[in-house]
Write a structure and sequence with these properties.
single chain; five-stranded mixed β-sheet; 5 helices; 9 strands
C-alpha cells in the first residue's frame, strides 16, 4: 500500500492507511535504558521507604498481638467470674493446690469458654486447641510443655498455716472476701521464672525485680495485660501495680487483696 504523507506545519509525517503511528522521516527512535546513577537513586528511594514502613508495620503487628492477648485474658477473666458464680463464689485453684492437674483453673473453666471439660481431660490434642489458643498470647514466644501464657495470682490460694504473708491470717479463697475486686489482680502474663500456671507475689517482698522474674511486664508496647477479680482486664505498667518506693517499703501492691485499692 503506498506510503502517504501528511504535513503539519513544516514537518511531514509518513503514514500507511490504517497505521496511526507517525514516523519522523529519516530518523530512527532508539529505546534508552536507565543509567547507573538513575538506578542508584531508585534503589535509595526504595530503601528509604522500606526503612520508614518496616518499623511502622512492626509496631502495628505488636499492637495487634497485644489486642489479641487482651481479648484472651479478658475472656479468661469472664470465664473465671462465671465459674465462681456457679461454685459458691470460690476461685478455681492453680496446679499448686489442685488435687490433680485436671482440677486446675485451666481445665475447670473450659466449659465457660465453650469447651468440653471431660473431652479435654482425655484428649490431649483437644486441650491443645485451648493451650495454643485462648491460653496463649501471640507475643509469647515460649513453646515449652505446660507453660501457659497466663497465670493465677497465688494470693487466692494461700493459707496462714502454710505461708507467711502480708494480710495473714486473712484468706481470699472466694470472691466475697476480696475488699476491692476491681483493683485486685487475678491473672497476669507469665515469664520463665514463674510456675506453669501461676505466680507467687507473696514472695516478692520489697524486691521489685522479683516481680519481673515471674510477670512478663514488657511483653507488649504498653506494658502487659492483667485481669482483675471483678472480671475486667487492663493493659498496665508493672510499676502502677507493684512499686517499692523507697526500696524498703511497698508503696503499691495490687496483687495482695489486703492492700489493693
Amino acid at each position: 500500500m503506498p506510503n502517504q504523507q501528511r504535513k503539519f506545519g513544516s514537518v511531514a509525517f509518513g503514514f500507511t492507511p490504517g497505521d496511526t503511528s507517525p514516523r519522523w522521516p529519516g530518523r530512527q527512535l532508539v529505546a534508552r535504558g536507565f543509567t547507573l546513577i538513575e538506578l542508584m537513586v531508585v534503589v535509595s528511594i526504595i530503601t528509604l521507604l522500606a526503612s520508614m514502613l518496616v518499623p511502622a508495620l512492626q509496631r502495628a503487628l505488636a499492637f495487634a498481638r497485644g489486642a489479641t492477648c487482651f481479648s484472651h485474658l479478658h475472656g479468661i477473666a469472664v470465664a473465671e467470674f462465671t465459674y465462681s458464680s456457679n461454685n459458691n463464689q470460690m476461685f478455681p485453684p492453680s496446679q499448686m493446690t489442685a488435687s490433680t492437674k485436671f482440677d486446675a483453673w485451666e481445665y475447670v473453666i473450659l466449659s465457660e469458654l465453650g469447651g468440653d471439660v471431660s473431652h479435654a481431660q482425655t484428649d490431649v490434642a483437644y486441650f491443645d486447641t485451648y493451650y495454643n489458643g485462648v491460653y496463649r498470647c501471640p507475643a509469647d514466644q515460649r513453646r515449652m510443655d505446660n507453660k501457659f501464657s497466663y497465670g493465677l495470682n497465688d494470693y487466692f490460694e494461700l493459707n496462714p498455716t502454710d505461708f507467711t504473708y502480708v494480710g495473714s491470717p486473712a484468706t481470699w479463697h472466694d470472691t466475697t472476701k476480696v475488699p476491692h475486686p476491681y483493683a485486685t489482680v487475678l491473672y497476669g502474663e507469665l515469664k520463665d521464672g514463674a510456675m506453669p500456671d501461676h505466680f507467687m507475689p507473696q514472695d516478692w517482698g520489697t524486691d521489685t525485680t522479683a516481680a519481673l522474674k515471674e510477670v512478663d511486664a514488657l511483653r507488649h508496647p504498653a506494658g502487659a495485660n492483667y485481669a482483675f477479680v471483678d472480671g475486667h482486664a487492663e493493659t498496665r505498667r508493672i510499676e502502677s501495680l507493684y512499686n517499692c518506693n523507697p526500696p524498703t517499703v511497698i508503696a503499691t501492691d495490687q496483687f495482695n487483696p489486703s492492700t489493693a485499692k
